[in-house]
């Protein structure tokens, strides 16, 4: 009898541990994707070098059917055939040697690139090829440059350099990438805020794929916070709060604790839309960003005058725009 009682106690103890262990395993299984996601976000924030490419995937016809008109088909097709790649290089431990770059593929025409290195903006672009694609001729190119010979190198597709302090509105800013850093910090904060209240599960068919589900109400609230923090003047131009709260899904892919891709199906925000059109980020490990050799220096002081009225489009090259 005594042995039986001991055996019963052992069985009861094992059963209790099994039940508790199962509950703990379920909780850990639910928490594990979020932990992996947070670790990957932390790794990305601390990386010395990072980069990503933004593009659209899916069928252009689905986007036109959802939000456009038949006449928009050509422009939408060009958008699907374009991409933008952004990269950052923190250099050392301080901020003084931070560098960044932007490379743009415009409807299949690659070669446009901007680099911010040591207080200078470096720019090159296949100007003639881009002009031909969009129907511009030599006269249009001459008007764009203001007829200044200093822009001959740029028009020929070569690297040019500009002191960022000479750009309209730059003033005496000591750190020309300060606006970019602010935007990055606010975007990171928004992503963290959305993650806190979101459901994160692992795709049973792909263990590298995490599915994050939030809601339109949370997404709108965070978008409003982000816009207000980055550019308060635009906050009043945001559309009204969504009348109907519904799930919003973001797809993330990770490998060895690092982000490899992220997608948001933009058609999920359009009621009755068919198909899938995703804004896709493809992450890279990044690389050192250096000043290109042989760049032709352009002195804007004599070209822009006091306010840059003769070439107002140059303000768009200011860091943060």
Automatic annotation (TrEMBL):
Protein name, as recorded: Lipoprotein
Organism expressing this protein natively: Paractinoplanes aksuensis
């Amino acid at each position: 009898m005594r042995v039986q009682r001991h055996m019963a106690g052992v069985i009861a103890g094992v059963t209790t541990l099994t039940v508790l262990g199962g509950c703990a395993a379920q909780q850990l299984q639910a928490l594990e994707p979020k932990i992996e996601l947070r670790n990957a976000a932390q790794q990305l924030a601390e990386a010395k070098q990072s980069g990503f490419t933004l593009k659209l995937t899916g069928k252009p016809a689905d986007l036109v059917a959802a939000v456009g008109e038949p006449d928009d088909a050509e422009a939408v097709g060009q958008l699907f055939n374009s991409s933008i790649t952004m990269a950052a290089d923190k250099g050392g431990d301080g901020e003084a040697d931070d560098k960044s770059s932007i490379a743009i593929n415009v409807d299949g025409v690659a070669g446009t690139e901007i680099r911010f290195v040591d207080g200078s903006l470096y720019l090159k672009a296949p100007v003639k090829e881009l002009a031909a694609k969009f129907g511009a001729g030599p006269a249009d190119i001459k008007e764009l440059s203001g007829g200044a010979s200093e822009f001959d190198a740029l028009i020929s597709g070569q690297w040019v350099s500009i002191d960022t302090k000479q750009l309209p509105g730059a003033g005496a800013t000591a750190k020309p990438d300060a606006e970019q850093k602010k935007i990055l910090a606010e975007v990171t904060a928004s992503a963290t805020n959305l993650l806190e209240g979101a459901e994160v599960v692992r795709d049973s068919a792909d263990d590298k794929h995490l599915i994050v589900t939030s809601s339109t109400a949370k997404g709108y609230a965070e978008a409003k916070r982000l816009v207000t923090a980055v550019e308060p003047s635009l906050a009043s131009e945001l559309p009204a709060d969504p009348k109907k709260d519904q799930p919003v899904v973001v797809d993330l892919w990770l490998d060895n604790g690092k982000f490899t891709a992220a997608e948001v199906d933009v058609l999920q925000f359009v009621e009755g839309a068919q198909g899938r059109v995703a804004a896709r980020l493809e992450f890279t490990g990044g690389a050192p960003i250096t000043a290109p050799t042989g760049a032709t220096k352009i002195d804007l002081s004599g070209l822009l005058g006091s306010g840059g009225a003769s070439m107002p489009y140059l303000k768009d090259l200011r860091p943060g725009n």
